[in-house]
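Lay summary. Proteins are chains of building blocks that fold into shapes, and those shapes determine what they do. In this project we predict the shape from the chain. Here is one chain we studied, written as its sequence of building blocks.
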Amino acid sequence: MIQNKKTKKYQLNLSMSALIDQEKYEKWLKNKARTHLKRDKKRGNISSTYESYRVAIHEAVINSNGKDAYTGENLDWSLINEYNNKDSKKYGRDYKKRFALLPTIDHVGDGKGKANFKICSWRTNDAKNDLSYEIFLELCNKIVNYSKN
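And here is the predicted shape, written in a compact code that computers can read:
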């Protein structure tokens, strides 16, 4: 197959390209792959590569169709590359609330094996933290059931 010169390796599909600019996405993808790989190497992952992380994150983005993998909510892709740690410290909760639907990368597994990710909101990822999907779901069910009392 001959590849069009304008087609990028990490090209967004039509539905995702309506949500985010390709250049902004590629910058985000590079940063996220680098950050997650560095963290996972510290956790003991010695086999993953920067390229495998970019591929896995890109696949997760395409598969997400712009939605949170756990809640089905539409994510706000205009927020990528916008979070500022200094502003977060300065304005606290009010600042962070604005980023609830910021797309983030969640590990499927412990980050020590093959790169495998899901895309979810910052709020969901923050709540899930390092829990497995099964334990997170169990916790969510406990919360829902308790709130009915």
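What the prediction tells us: The helical segments are 14-17, 22-42, 50-64, 85-97, 122-128, 133-147.
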